[in-house]
TrEMBL record:
GO terms for cellular component: plasma membrane. Zn(2+) binds at C339, C387, H388. The keyword Zinc applies. InterPro entries: 6hp_glycosidase-like_sf (IPR012341), LANC-like (IPR007822). This is Uncharacterized protein. Signal peptide: none annotated. GO terms for molecular function: metal ion binding. The lineage of its organism: Eukaryota, Fungi, Dikarya, Ascomycota, Pezizomycotina. One of its GO terms (biological process) is carbohydrate metabolic process. Pfam families: LANC_like.
Length: 459
């Protein structure tokens, strides 16, 4: 019988050879992966080396700027971005970049219409927040600018034409009736209706706007009384309408507006004090007592004497730094911005001084202390805007050179560099959240206007 050993040996050899081939393929694959890992590691090391080299280069350049005492003009914007972890830039600079306010205004408007045109598509993703942000807020900017620059044409259209283009975006949205808790300048229904009545000169829209007072001034709901979401903001919108629908031109509409103002002021004063928002006693310009006092007094000056003691109590809350607490009981002294803190108080108080002659000295003292703090801590690292940025803080400064100095931190070169890293978010065009607010500041600088805040105390 023939031996089977050669056959077995052949089978074993075949399997051994196949096994070796399989092992070789696995090892080759692992070698490729390992080489890839090594290459990736080498690339990361090279990038890290470049980062270290760039860091050293920037450090040397920064040191040179400091030695030259020319930090403001010589340090590029991307070096300043290295300090964005801080709440504000240290204000150590003495020199200033020369800025042309009118040129900056036009550049600002161009960024609005180019980056956020008055169209409504799936890609625009507009948010509608009344005069605070969104198309209606931009329309309001163009309307206010048309009153300041009546002969100015921009991109072959009048400023009123641009206002009409943006207001039309809000006309297509579903409107919700305001409530006592959502009836301020941030309410899209009320803001759109007020502005549309002005642009169209339609008295019937004024009647509809005032009819919402029944909701706003509900006797069963104390609601909100502050400016952004509450009745104080409704007062601003009423004044806005009354400026156009005046007694001499529209007596019936003016009478209705005056009646609604009185009813709204009465409703605010009937709410037990301290006024609160979300069960917290806020003090600042967005949600607090100073915003309520400002809107009530500007809407109905005869009521000022009733609020004098409350105003003095607010002045007593001022921090030793000159800043004001965002709420009571006072917490940390850190927010220096329009919505919470000294800048909003300054902008409010400088408007209120004529209505409180008996305490004008105390008001002036508070303003001066707060301005010193804004100058020290007001160059905020957030994106420049009216609500919580350099734009709003600039309006709180008294001297022209300091005002322009703050504005130079949001000139076109800086803003366009900032926008390179930014997402295409339409809130960046809004009146209190972005470009439209910056445009207002440039307009104020261009015309040398009183430093009032649009949508707050400009009317």
């Amino acid at each position: 019988m023939q031996s089977k050993e050669p056959v077995v040996d052949k089978i074993v050899e075949n399997h051994r050879r196949k096994g070796q081939q399989l092992v070789d393929r696995v090892l080759d694959h692992q070698a490729v992966e390992l080489n890839g890992v090594v290459s990736a590691f080498d690339r990361k090391c090279m990038r890290l080396g470049k980062i270290f080299d760039e860091g050293a280069r920037l450090a040397r350049r920064l040191l040179m700027c400091l030695l030259q005492d020319n930090l403001r003009e010589s340090t590029p914007t991307y070096v300043l971005k290295m300090a964005r972890s801080a709440r504000y830039f240290d204000n150590l600079m003495e020199s200033m970049i020369n800025v042309d306010p009118h040129r900056e205004l036009i550049a600002s408007l161009r960024r609005i219409v180019n980056l956020h045109p008055p169209v409504h598509t799936c890609s625009t993703s507009w948010y509608f927040s009344g005069l605070y942000s969104g198309p209606t807020s931009i329309a309001f900017l163009f309307y206010r600018l048309s009153r300041i620059f009546p002969d100015l044409e921009f991109e072959h259209q009048s400023l009123l034409d641009w206002a009409q283009a943006y207001i039309q975006l809000g006309a297509r949205t579903q409107k919700r009736a305001p409530t006592p808790n959502h009836c301020g300048i941030g309410n899209e229904t009320l803001a759109h209706l007020a502005l549309n009545s002005i642009l169209s000169q339609d008295a019937s829209l004024v009647g509809k706007f005032c009819s919402y007072a029944e909701n706003v001034n509900s006797s069963t709901d104390d609601g909100s009384n502050e400016w952004l979401y509450g009745r104080a903001g409704y007062l601003y919108l009423l004044r806005l309408c009354h400026e156009v629908f005046s007694v001499d031109r529209h007596p019936q509409s003016a009478k209705l507006l005056q009646k609604t103002i009185r009813e709204t002021v009465d409703r605010i004063l009937k709410v037990p004090r301290p006024w609160t928002w979300h069960d917290k006693q806020y003090l600042g310009a967005a949600h607090g007592s100073i915003s309520i006092i400002t809107q009530v007094v500007l809407s109905m000056p005869s009521i000022a004497h009733q609020l004098q003691l409350l105003l003095l109590e607010l002045l007593d809350s001022q921090f030793p730094s000159g800043n004001f607490p965002s709420s009571l009981p006072a917490g940390s002294d850190r927010l220096v911005q329009f919505c919470h803190g000294g800048p909003g108080f300054i902008i409010s108080l400088q408007t209120l001084v004529p209505f409180f002659p008996e305490v004008s000295g105390e008001i002036d003292k508070a303003i001066n202390a707060a301005r010193a703090d804004v100058w020290k801590r007001g160059l905020l690292t957030k994106e420049p805007c009216l609500c919580h940025g350099i734009a709003g803080n600039s309006l709180a400064l008294g001297e022209d050179d300091r005002f322009l100095y703050f504005l130079s931190f949001m000139n076109s070169e800086r803003i366009e560099e900032l926008l390179q890293d930014a997402t295409r978010d339409n809130s960046r065009a809004g009146l209190f959240t972005g470009e439209a607010g910056r445009a207002w500041c440039w307009a104020v600088a261009d015309k040398g206007l009183p430093r009032t805040c649009i949508g707050y105390n400009d009317i």
